[in-house]
Amino acid sequence: MICKTFSIILFFLSCKTVVGQSSEFYVNYQGLCSTSIRLNNDGTYNYGSGCENSTNLSFGTWKQSKDTIKLKQFDTKDFKVLRILPSITEHSNRLSVKLFNQQGENITAKLRLVQYVQGKGEFTLSLDSLTQTKTDFIRDSGIIIIKALERLPKTDFGVVVGDYNNYEITINIPNDLVYKIGSNWINTGDFELLKRKNALLSTTIYPADGDAKPFRIEYKKQTD
Fold first, then answer.
1. Could you give the CA distance from residue 166 to residue 96 in angstroms, rounded to a whole number?
2. Which residue of 12, 86, 134, 213 has the fewest C-beta atoms within 10 A of its own C-beta?
3. Could you give the dihedral angle defined by the CA atoms of residues 166, 171, 176 and 179, in that order, rounded to the nearest 10 degrees?
4. Strands annotated E in the chain
5. What is the DSSP string of 197-218?
């Protein structure tokens, strides 16, 4: 059970700072639970915490000032979950859609896509023989919906088909928020951590029980 929880978090956290490294990955273990932070080389971070079968995730941007890492959570009200690149194919009544993850990998085959038409329902797009594209007839007033995203706390995930035939859609959120049904968005807010040689430390010092010394939460650096 512990391995399952940790593997979920490790899979989610995908990739900064030192030349020659694509990311820095830190974990704090507390019994059956763990909290993980990955500093990606593009200035974003992924945060995950989990106990048993539940996983809480968030992400945002980070920057370093001297020995302090400042993490700023994305505002989900303004953040663009989908990046859409439409193109026109003349003389065709076919709709073609490709899906990509944050890393630019084609994930079309892994997710269910439908074309929703008000009053008529949902029409599932079919996967082509190369498993890179999903297709359907263009339907009047059709809206492309990625079913896996319906459970997230946003409502603007529908893509109106309009005058275009082909769409390339990038999903700008960590893989686990897309794939893992048991994953939930957690509002961590903005926070700071102290950078050490092989660890990140909380800026807050917490009181300890009994005669133990006050402590900081430590996230130890991991080797991928």
1. 5
2. 213
3. -20
4. 23-30, 33-40, 44-51, 54-65, 68-73, 82-87, 94-100, 113-117, 121-124, 126-127, 134-137, 143-146, 159-160, 166-171, 183-185, 191-196, 199-202, 218-221
5. TTEEEESSPBP-STTPPPB--E
The predicted-structure confidence for 108-143, as pLDDT tens digits, reads as follows 999 999 999 999 999 999 999 999 999 999 999 999
| The pLDDT of residue 10 | 37
| Structural domains for the chain | 2-77+181-221 (2.40.128.300), 82-171 (2.60.40)
Give the predicted TM-score (pTM) of the model: 0.63
Q: Of 73, 63, 72, which Cα lies nearest the Cα of 195? A: 63
